[in-house]
Specification:
Blueprint: H1 31-41, H2 44-70, H3 73-82
Helix pairs in contact: 1-2, 2-3
């Protein structure tokens, strides 16, 4: 059964899309961007909206494919453990602990 996506990103997330016209973001085309910013910065209500909009399966797919590279390490590990993700695409850039800057 086809699920209709809500028409708008919650207004509280607007500050996290400063470089975009939030009204022009498309929930399907820009799903990875929206998932990334909401997982990183969203409130509980905004996270609830995210899971209602994309469902756990789609969010888990994002985490497996892009999570390690697009989320802060602490955020990625939180969602990875919460959603029981055991395998994901590793970042090709190896940085030793403390070599770049503290996360």
């Amino acid at each position: 059964m086809y699920r209709v996506l809500p028409s708008a990103i919650p207004a509280g997330l607007k500050p996290y899309f400063q470089e975009y016209n939030i009204a022009r973001l498309n929930l399907e085309r820009d799903a990875n961007l929206i998932i990334q910013r909401t997982l990183e910065f969203g409130t509980w209500d905004e996270l609830r909206w995210l899971f209602e909009t994309y469902r756990s399966k789609r969010i888990r797919l994002f985490l497996r494919q892009y999570g390690e590279r697009q989320l802060k390490p602490v955020t990625f590990n939180y969602w990875r453990k919460l959603l029981n993700i055991r395998r994901w695409k590793k970042s090709p850039f190896v940085v030793g602990r403390g070599e770049l800057w503290d996360h």
